[in-house]
Amino acid sequence: MARYGWGRIADCVVVLLLAVSGQMQIWSQPDAWEPNAGVHAALLAAITFPLLVRRRHPLVVVIVAFSASWLQYELGGGQFQPWFADLMALYSVGAHAPLRQALAGAAVGATSVLAIDIPRLVDGEPVGEVVPAWFIFAGIWAFGRWMRRRRRETEELTERADTLEREQERQAQIAVAAERARIARELHDLVAHSMGVIVIQAQGSQRALDRDTAAVRASLQSIEATGRQGLAELRRLLGILTDAHSGEGTSPQPSLDRLGELVEGVRGAGLDTDLQCDGDVRPLPPGVELAAYRIVQEALTNALKHAHARSARVRVHYLPTRIDLEVADDGAGGTPKGNGHGLVGMRERVSLYGGTLSLGDAPEGGFPVRASIPVESAER
Q1: Largest CB tally within 10 Å, which of 36, 93, 111, 371?
Q2: Per-residue model confidence as pLDDT tens digits over 327-350
Q3: 207 to 42, 106, 219, 222, 243: CA distances (angstroms)
Q4: Residue closest to 284 by CA, chosen among 256, 316, 263
Q5: Any idea which architecture 256-379 has in CATH?
Q6: Where are the domains of the chain?
Q7: Residue 70 neighbours by CB distance under 10 Å
Q8: pTM for this one?
Q9: What is the arrangement of strands in the sheet containing 272-279, beginning at the earlier edge strand?
Q10: CA 324/CA 245 separation, integer angstroms
Q11: pLDDT tens digits for range 255-266
């Protein structure tokens, strides 16, 4: 219904105009009430009303319309409505019928037209008044076939676009799941490290319990701080989908104090990189440091591999309640090419701590990455 809604309305309007105008022309003649007038009226109805179903049954409409038109002509009819209706029927069989039916409809139309026009030519009617109509009928049928092909191509392109969009969504979901699994494994290592520190400190406190009260108090304070950080990371860990069967190892996770090593490695690869740290430089919760390190690492990797930059600038700004990161380069700009997992990873790491991430081209060139990660919430 939806597909043919407007088409049916248009068909109804056209049929109404043809039928009403044709009937008025028939019944307004001086000999309107002779027997032939009723026959012409019935034939006109047979020619026009089938157009209502021309999209669903185009071959049937062509057969009925051309047959009735030929019969009306033989009975002396000379109206323009049958000619116009035949054009619509011939277009419909070209535009809405499979190839075999379309060829059959063309054959029916050609037979009817030639059955009328050949005798006219034999009777001496000028060729210029007869033959041009053949080209009009042929052109209308060919135009219908062309419209059918264009419609099919449009439908195929739409279907391909929908398929591609679904595939992109699926790949994005896979990338998010993979990155979350990676983050979860890293946080798992951090939590395990925190728990190990707590155990060692608790053992030391037991040994010093009767000898050094101050040392025990300091050890308990350290246990409390480590436990709070471990619980904060554990809560985040439980919120992420993990791959329990991953075979990756549990090597120590990097932190911000290793940014110097990262920058040196990037310089060795050919990217002149400047590192600047300002503000109240201090140890942060391990998860925050890991997220910040990975963001800087991914941004520098994109600058080196995809932007083909010659230099980059890394700025780490420590604030009381957050840490701000900025990585800028002088590359070509534009969204980094590749599978897009790096950008997904940045977003996931920032959103994990309720931070913000800004990606985009800069007026002076390059693809700057700016991230802000809250610290206060991570220490609760």
Answers
A1: 93
A2: 988 877 655 555 556 777 788 888
A3: 114, 103, 11, 16, 40
A4: 256
A5: 2-Layer Sandwich (3.30)
A6: 5-125, 170-238, 256-379
A7: 18
A8: 0.48
A9: 272-279, 311-318, 322-329, 369-374, 356-359
A10: 35
A11: 888 888 888 888
